[in-house]
Amino acid sequence: MIVAALRLQLYLPQCQTLKEKRMIVRALLEGIRAHFPAATAEVGFTDLHQRAEIGIAVVSGQRNQTEALLDHIERFVDAHLDGIVSERERFSF
Prior knowledge:
alpha+beta, Alpha-Beta Plaits, 4 strands
């Protein structure tokens, strides 16, 4: 069993309030869960209105499947995020 995780730091310059940020982050996380077999959560910068950090985890029997799934998720985020991914980090266990 291979567990892989992806941590993304997001910059959301259009957000002026925490409520705006949370709406954008929640929609992004729900979109990922709707399209991919992945667990998602906001994991950092919860008190800043223009920054967010999200975590995504996937499980598979083969490393190449988890890597391919994370590649698809990254492309989904890039296509659907109204902001900038400022940092990306992957982990495998």
